[in-house]
Amino acid sequence: MHQVSRRSFLTWTAAGTLALVVTDPVTGVRRVVAEELPGGTLPAGDIRPFASPLLVPPTMPRTRRSGAKGGPVDHYDISVRQFAQQMLPEEHPATTVWGYGPADGGVGRRLHHAPSMTIEAEHGVPVRIRWVNDLVDDQGRALPHLLPVDPTLHWANPDLRPGPGPDGMPRTDVRPDFSGLTYVPPGEPVDPDTQYSTYQGPVPMVVHLHGAMGMGDESDGYPEAWYLPDAWDLGEHAEHGTWYEFFARRSLQRYGEMWRRGEQVAHYPNDNRDSTLWFHDHTLGITRLNVYAGPAGFYLLRGGPQGEDEVRDARTGRRAVLPANAPASSRGRGRVPTYELPLAIQDRSFNADGSLFYPDTRAFFDGYEGPYVPDSPIHPVWNPEFFGNTLIVNGRTWPFHEVEQRRYRLRLLNGCGSRFLILDLSGIPGVRAHQIGNDGGFLPAPHDLAQDGLRLLMAPAERADVILDLTDVPVGEHVITNLGPDEPYGGGEPGVDFDPADPTTTGRVMQLRVVPATGRDRTTPAEHLQLPGLPADVTAVRTRKLALLEHMHAVDDHEVEEGEAPAAALLGVMRPHEGKGLEAHPLTWADPVTENPDVGDTEEWEIYNLTADAHPVHVHETPFQVLERREITVEEAGYVTDVGGPLPVPPGDRGLKDTVISYPGTMTRIRMTFRNPGQFVWHCHVLEHEDNEMMRPYRVGPEQKGQPADGMPHH
Per the count of CB atoms within 10 A, which of 55, 76, 402, 666 is most buried? Predict the structure, then answer.
């Protein structure tokens, strides 16, 4: 997140030295003047790559019951817990993480993992999940966060301190008032009358199923509907967020489901298209930390009118055969798939004791050491972005996987907080790859990745469904690599517009150990797949002009380039301005709702990116089509004075999506229909941005009776 005029920024290395990231003013290429991406006390170069086998998540156990209307409903009880997991190779200590798993106290305790077991869902068969916050120790006491929590953001704030909110009342879900207090780094003694430090209390959580459509807002994981664990030592902490009780009543009215202390109940109707979804935490102001600690999992929705059964072999017109489970296994029975591989790619940094590393000071990002809130708008702990110095796949650093000379189906997820991935298969001789789906399900037609140099760009939270054909790949060891940068992504080509990831660390993803096929591959070649069609276009009734912005603060610090430091990322609206075209008006999370479509409306949103970096924009609850992008002319004061002609929509953005890349200096236009009433959100899925104001509520239909007021959360 950098201002357009900025040409470099400073960051700390693992060794504690300051490294300079320089942008050439002529070519625009960024290069890091350092040997290794900064991280914890375990250098990435000391971690053996390809030392651990890939773990393919098994299927989450479920209970199928008859619903109130007679049809089946799949029930799950899932908790998030703290445990030790071997993320690093076996010669290193295990890593304490959080993860989801079956909530029972017996065998389920051993089945928690980061990422979790996969939920297999069927189109039209609702799934009801009791999500339990079980972040307690063996004595039932609330556990603190694994990572440093910055209390100065607009966040969940269960501590109700240190001062009142804007209305003078102590309450949750506000930016606390630290007037008269000075920040003290974590671990040092704190005088509560004059000082403050990081938050050390129990951890709030709320679960969002990313990509779910058609559910009630009580099931969406609204950021202010968080809840603490059912611990006996909560003391003066608020047990839940502003919207929790309202949604709990709604759940009881709609489904007869009581929300007990320390949990939420979500009901997913599964009426959206066959697609790759994933679930993760969505708590206001600490999503980046909660997700980094581990809680995430795949949710594979299958079937329906645009589902797998409708994919045809263009040569015969018969149902196509996609790579799936091994012949002896079946879906929903807990067996591990072999030819369909869900792959969650994330970045992490570690300390020598195996623990996760995440910055505990703003100085890690750009060397800025204060003054902090309340003496400036710069937060003492929040980093505008963070890039781990290793890549993990399904919870293990640089794993290997034995594969046959045949076709595989990869269900790919970029689960990173800030990192854009450019997966590169070009180093695998004889490989072929076709993308057949994205966030919202199947593409209109298979896209041969050879047209893109066998590269696949994925922003944080984006998913890709890829047929990987290893039929002609030689037996041996081959590596999937990453060309995405070790810094914020702004578009362009690796090696031309930016330096690719470090080829010895974050430039590696995983190793494929290719062996001869054990039998005949009966799957349909990807080039012959005929994919299901899309719903008919609907005419929009309204166009909204929205803005992606950043707040830069002037600082008196010689270490910070040009004396400016990023203080927040923002969303806003674009409004006409006489003589200037369009003017950006920034908004915060607390501002009243400005996007309020009626139920059934189809709208087009034009998203104007006035920042220097790309942002993955995610809209909850409804899928959208990417219609076009156009270059824009931006003046420094936040005016858009000109909009160019339409740019082609890449094949991977066709079909339906829920997350789209908005490039710097462009307007991205999307179209969607709002069929479900309620309160939802849209935001940037760079989690560090989302946690500091780059998220806004939107409402479909009128305000609901008894709902908390916009911009003024209740105590």
Answer: 666
